[in-house]
UniProtKB/TrEMBL annotation:
<dbReference type="InterPro" id="IPR013785">
    <property type="entry name" value="Aldolase_TIM"/>
</dbReference>
<dbReference type="GO" id="GO:0006094">
    <property type="term" value="P:gluconeogenesis"/>
</dbReference>
<dbReference type="GO" id="GO:0004807">
    <property type="term" value="F:triose-phosphate isomerase activity"/>
</dbReference>
<dbReference type="InterPro" id="IPR022896">
    <property type="entry name" value="TrioseP_Isoase_bac/euk"/>
</dbReference>
<dbReference type="GO" id="GO:0019563">
    <property type="term" value="P:glycerol catabolic process"/>
</dbReference>
<dbReference type="GO" id="GO:0046166">
    <property type="term" value="P:glyceraldehyde-3-phosphate biosynthetic process"/>
</dbReference>
<comment type="subunit">
    <text>Homodimer.</text>
</comment>
<keyword id="KW-0413">Isomerase</keyword>
<dbReference type="GO" id="GO:0005829">
    <property type="term" value="C:cytosol"/>
</dbReference>
<dbReference type="GO" id="GO:0006096">
    <property type="term" value="P:glycolytic process"/>
</dbReference>
<dbReference type="InterPro" id="IPR020861">
    <property type="entry name" value="Triosephosphate_isomerase_AS"/>
</dbReference>
<dbReference type="InterPro" id="IPR035990">
    <property type="entry name" value="TIM_sf"/>
</dbReference>
<dbReference type="InterPro" id="IPR000652">
    <property type="entry name" value="Triosephosphate_isomerase"/>
</dbReference>
<dbReference type="Pfam" id="PF00121">
    <property type="entry name" value="TIM"/>
</dbReference>
<comment type="similarity">
    <text>Belongs to the triosephosphate isomerase family.</text>
</comment>
<comment type="pathway">
    <text>Carbohydrate biosynthesis.</text>
</comment>
<protein>
    <recommendedName>
        <fullName>Triosephosphate isomerase</fullName>
    </recommendedName>
</protein>
Length: 248
C-alpha cells in the first residue's frame, strides 16, 4: 500500500526570533510541486504556538516531547492535553537525546506514546542503536527492545510514524548508507509483522534520521522501506526545502 512520504524537521533547542522568522520566510516562500510529502516541523515549546500561527497551512507542527500524564502539578512539563488545546497535532517521543540525557526508558517512552495517542496526538516515535550496540551486533535487538513496550501498550498504530535514528549518525555528519538504513527499516517492518500485524507493518511509515542533508536525501529516500526523514541540523537551513523537493 502507498505510504505518504513524511519529512520532519526537529529544531531541537535552537532558534531566536530572528532566525525563526528567516526560516519561516524560507519555508513559506518555497515553491513546492504537488502532491507534497507530509511536512512537520518541531520548534521548541516556547516557539511552538507562534510558529504554528505563521507557518504555511500545508505544513504542520510538532512538539519535541510531552508529559507522560495529563495536566496537573508537574512543574516544567507540557501535557498532551495542552498541546491538543493549542491545536498542535504531532509530538516527537523517544528521541535518543531524551533517552540518553533525560534517562527516558523504553517503557517510559511507550507510556508517553500511549498517553499522547489517547489524547489525540500523532506520534513520531524514535528508535535506534548506539555505535557500541551496532559494533556489538546488537542493532536489531536494540530496536526490538525499544519497540516491544510500545507494541504492548498500543491498540492502534494509525497515528504513529516510526523514526529509525542510529545514534551514531545523529548530528555527526556520519550518515547511514542507504543499505544500512534499508536493512534496519526492513527489520522493523518484519518485526511489526510478527509482533503487531501485517497490516500495521504495511501501513506504518518508517522514516530515517541521522545527518540527512540535501546531498544524501534522494538516494536514501529511494530505498524500498524508507518512507521519509527526521531531519535535525539541516532542518534549520534552506537545505530543508531541498530535502522536501527530493522526496520521491
Ligand atoms: C535528529 O536529531 O533527529 C537528527 C536526525 O539530527 P541530525 O539530522 O542533525 O543528525
Amino acid at each position: 500500500m502507498a505510504r505518504r512520504f513524511f519529512i520532519g524537521g526537529n529544531w531541537k533547542c535552537n532558534g531566536t526570533l530572528k532566525s525563526i522568522e528567516d526560516l519561516l520566510s524560507t519555508l513559506n516562500g518555497a515553491d513546492l510541486a504537488k502532491p507534497l510529502p507530509e511536512v512537520v516541523v518541531a520548534p521548541t515549546y516556547v516557539h511552538l504556538a507562534w510558529v504554528k500561527s505563521k507557518l504555511r497551512e500545508d505544513f504542520a507542527v510538532a512538539a519535541q516531547n510531552s508529559w507522560i500524564k495529563g495536566s496537573g502539578a508537574y512543574t516544567g512539563e507540557i501535557s498532551p492535553e495542552i498541546l491538543k488545546d493549542l491545536g498542535i497535532p504531532w509530538v516527537i517521543l523517544g528521541h535518543s537525546e531524551r533517552r540518553t540525557l533525560c534517562s527516558e526508558s523504553s517503557q517510559v517512552v511507550a507510556d508517553k506514546t500511549k498517553y499522547a495517542l489517547d489524547k489525540g496526538l500523532a506520534v513520531i516515535l524514535c528508535v535506534g542503536e548506539t555505535l557500541e550496540q551496532r559494533e556489538a551486533g546488537k542493532t536489531f535487538d536494540t530496536v526490538a527492545e525499544q519497540l516491544k513496550p510500545v507494541a504492548g501498550a498500543l491498540s492502534s498504530w494509525t497515528a504513529v510514524v516510526v523514526a529509525y535514528e542510529p545514534v551514531w549518525a545523529i548530528g555527526t555528519g556520519k550518515v547511514a548508507t542507504p543499505e544500512q538504513a534499508q536493512e534496519v527499516h526492513a527489520y522493523i517492518r518484519s518485526w511489526l509483522t510478527d509482533n503487531v500485524s501485517p497490516e500495521v507493518s504495511d501501513t506504518t511509515r518508517l522514516i530515517y534520521g541521522g545527518s540527512v542533508t540535501a546531498k544524501n536525501s534522494a538516494e536514501l529516500g529511494s530505498a524500498k522501506d524508507i518512507d521519509g526523514f527526521l531531519v535535525g541540523g539541516a532542518s534549520l537551513k534552506p537545505d530543508f526545502v531541498e530535502i522536501i523537493k527530493s522526496a520521491p
